[in-house]
Every structure is written in C-alpha cells, then in structure tokens.
C-alpha cells in the first residue's frame, strides 16, 4: 500500500496534488510520502514483535537526510556501506550504536571514522578486511565489534545483478569455512565477535530461499557456540521484494517474513537485526515527468518525456519494470494505446517501457513512475550534463524540497581548468 491515490481525477501524494508540486519545482522530480515510509518501517518492526530486534534501514535504497531523519525518529537503525553513508546517517542524528557497517571494500580510513564516531558492528566480508579492522582498532586502543558475513550458497531466484548469496558472488565467506574464519577472529585482540551476518539478495518474492539460508545460519550458530564463540546477534540482511507490477501476485508480507524468522531462529535467543531498504522506500516514492513530444514512428508511437535514464536508471540497468500512470486520471472508458516511453538522452537504452498500454497523452501532460523511491535518486547521475532532479518530501498537506535542482552554472563551475589552458 502507498499514499499516492487519485482524487477527483487528480493524482495526490497524501493530501498534496502532484500537479501543485510540479508547478512549484518543475519536472522531472522525485516525491516521497512520509506516511508510506513510516507505515512500511512499522510493518517490519511489528513483524518482529516479541523478539529482541533492531530494524536497520538499508540507506543505499534512498539516502536523503530527510528520509533518514524520518525513519530514525521512528526508531530505525541504519545499515551503511560507505563512509559517506555513515556520515549521512550521523548528520541525520542516528547514534553510532544503531549503525551497522556492511560492504565488501571497507578502507582503513572508513573503519577509523566509524570506530571513532561510534558503530554497532562491522559486518566483515573477508579475512583481509578482518585483519585491517583489527589493526585499526589496536592503533586506536579500541575493540571493534564484528559479525562475519557467511555466504550460504542459496539461490535467491532474483535478478543476477542483485543476487548475493550464491557461491560465485563476491559477498561473504563460504559457510563451509566459517569455523576456521571465526577461529581467526577470536585470535585477534582488536576484535569482539558478536554474531553472524547473512544476506542472500534483493527483490526476493518467495520466502523459501530465506528459509533455506536461515536454517543454515541456525545450524552454524549452534556449531560456533559449541566452539566457544559467544554468538548473540544474527544480522539477516534484507531483500524482501515489492510489487513493481500491480497486476502481479504480491510478494510475501513483512509479517510472514517475521514469522519465518521466529520459526527458524527464534529458539536461539539471539538479537535479530534486519536491513530492509527497498520495501521501506520503494513504493514510498514516485518520479514525475512531463511529456515533451508524442512522436509517430514506423509501426509505433513514442512518448518522449523529460525524465531520462540518468534520473531513473533501473530500467536500463536491470530491465526493471515500473508502472507508469498519468497524473490526470483518464475518464472511464477511455481507450488505451501502446507507446514506447523514452527519455531524451542519446542512448537507445534510455527507454523506460516498450509498447506500454496508456490512455492517449499529449505534450505537456504529466506522468508518474510508480515504485521509484528505492534505487532511484541515489543512482542518478549528471550524464549528458543533465542536473540531478529535485527530491520532495510530503507530510500530510505539506511538502518540502529536500534536494534542490542545481543550476547549470553550479554543475559547470565544479570543473577546474588547468593553468596551461
């Protein structure tokens, strides 16, 4: 469920007409619903009710500080994968003890910043990384809390570019080597092993891969405890999918996911961490674009819009589907027609949809890309020297621009001309 609905033929974000925002900030832009963000966070929090747990928002999905602050005030922790994300979380008021640092390529400087600023744990991905964390912690006279990410070799049955739990993926250590890697960690004086980390992929629409992975984590927990390790925290990652196509069967609900966690891991008495990102932010955001031209081609018509692949890259990168709807609701009985919906960037890949059935549209009409809140604005670029588009947050009948569109001069003046030119 989201809070983007038609009222009297006009699309609203909560209690604000989308057309009103478009008139104020111009197109294209992203708009997020506070009510949807909070609802989705609370669904996860309530799904784990009765267990010792922390829901850490995976902020790579959408990392504007206004979004982070909204979720932090509701009790969320943060899952970060870079120094920049760590500093964003801190700037949004998230305390270090609620920040988990993931990622395969943490540098010594990133580790140092997180240790001195406060960190809940590092999710360690390899033995070389473990040794660097140990060295930095000893240099600072500190002890670093860690989990070790194990790769359970489970096929998440998701897109190849977002699968992370198979043996050929770059993430974590093979679960078959876990005993020796945990023994190494226990021998390093700058580390404190607090638990196990596992994340098998993103946009999962079936609970069975989670079950298979968590059963392996449960078995490993008991094995490691028998070896003398104090395993008291299980970081289960995120990955639960969202319905990008409204016509398709809905993915499992957070409450079903929470029950699976309790069924497979509840007997261990561990604190549970989960790191949802997409399901919290995905359906909480739209990208709004305007039709520039309607072009007739050979056997097909094109909607050329002012949003482009640099603004929303998921269709070009992942062949991802986004439902696309007009901001002004078509009259009942309006006959649809197929369009290729494309952007202005000089790439054939700048195509959002092919032969998508839409009510007839004209130049100047507004359209909304649904389910664009996750991996939208955060993956945007200035390709073709196109400015990053604004982000807008709605709260009831109010809206605020939470990232301005830069002027062309601002973009150009970031370049530095060498003195010999």
List keywords for this structure.
2 domains; nine-stranded mixed sheet; TIM Barrel; 421 residues; Lyase, Ornithine Decarboxylase, Chain A, domain 1; 28% helix; alpha/beta
Secondary-structure map:
Layout: E1 4-7, E2 10-13, E3 16-17, H1 18-25, E4 29-33, H2 34-47, E5 53-58, H3 65-73, E6 77-80, H4 83-91, E7 99-101, H5 108-117, E8 121-124, H6 127-140, E9 144-151, E10 173-174, H7 178-187, E11 191-197, H8 208-226, E12 233-235, H9 254-265, E13 271-274, H10 278-281, E14 285-296, E15 301-305, H11 314-318, E16 324-326, E17 337-342, E18 351-358, E19 366-369, E20 391-395, E21 398-403, H12 408-412
Parallel strand pairs: 4-20, 5-6, 5-13, 6-7, 7-8, 8-9, 9-10, 9-11, 11-12, 12-13, 15-17
Antiparallel strand pairs: 1-2, 2-3, 4-14, 14-15, 14-19, 16-19, 17-18, 20-21
């Amino acid at each position: 469920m989201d809070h983007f609905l038609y009222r009297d033929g006009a699309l609203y974000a909560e209690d604000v007409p989308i057309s009103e925002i478009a008139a104020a900030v111009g197109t294209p832009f992203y708009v997020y619903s506070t009510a949807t963000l909070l609802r989705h966070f609370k669904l996860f929090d309530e799904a784990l009710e009765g267990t010792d747990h922390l829901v850490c928002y995976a902020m790579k999905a959408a990392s504007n500080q206004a979004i982070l602050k909204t979720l932090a005030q509701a009790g969320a922790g943060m899952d970060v994968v870079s120094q920049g994300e760590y500093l964003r979380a801190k700037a949004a008021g998230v305390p270090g003890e609620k920040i988990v640092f993931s990622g395969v390529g943490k540098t010594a400087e990133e580790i140092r910043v997180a240790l001195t600023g406060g960190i809940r744990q590092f999710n360690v991905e390899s033995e070389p990384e473990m040794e660097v964390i140990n060295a930095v912690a000893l240099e600072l006279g500190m002890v670093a809390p860690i989990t070790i990410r194990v790769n359970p070799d489970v096929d998440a049955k998701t897109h190849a570019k977002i699968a992370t739990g198979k043996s050929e993926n770059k993430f974590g250590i093979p679960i078959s080597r876990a005993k020796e890697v945990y023994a190494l960690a226990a021998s390093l004086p700058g580390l404190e092993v607090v638990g196990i980390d596992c994340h098998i992929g993103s946009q999962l629409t079936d609970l069975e891969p989670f079950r298979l992975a968590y059963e392996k984590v449960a078995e490993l927990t008991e094995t490691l405890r028998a070896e003398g390790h104090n395993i008291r925290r299980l970081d289960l990652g995120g990955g639960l999918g969202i319905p990008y196509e409204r016509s398709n069967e809905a993915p499992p609900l957070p409450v079903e996911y929470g029950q699976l966690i309790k069924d497979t891991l509840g007997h261990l008495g561990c604190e549970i961490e989960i790191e949802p990102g997409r399901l919290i932010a995905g359906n909480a955001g739209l990208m709004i674009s305007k039709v520039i031209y309607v072009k007739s081609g050979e056997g097909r018509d094109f909607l050329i819009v002012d949003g482009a692949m640099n603004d929303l890259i998921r269709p070009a990168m992942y062949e991802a589907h986004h439902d696309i709807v007009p901001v002004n609701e078509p009259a009942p009985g309006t006959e649809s027609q197929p369009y290729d919906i494309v952007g202005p960037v000089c790439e054939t890949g700048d195509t959002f949809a092919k032969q998508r059935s839409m009510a007839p549209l004209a130049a100047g009409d507004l359209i909304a890309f649904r389910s664009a809140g996750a991996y939208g604005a955060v993956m945007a670029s200035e390709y073709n020297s196109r400015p990053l588009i604004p982000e807008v947050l709605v709260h009831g009948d109010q809206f605020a621009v939470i990232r301005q569109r830069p002027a062309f001069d601002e973009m150009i003046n970031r370049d530095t001309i060498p003195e010999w030119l």
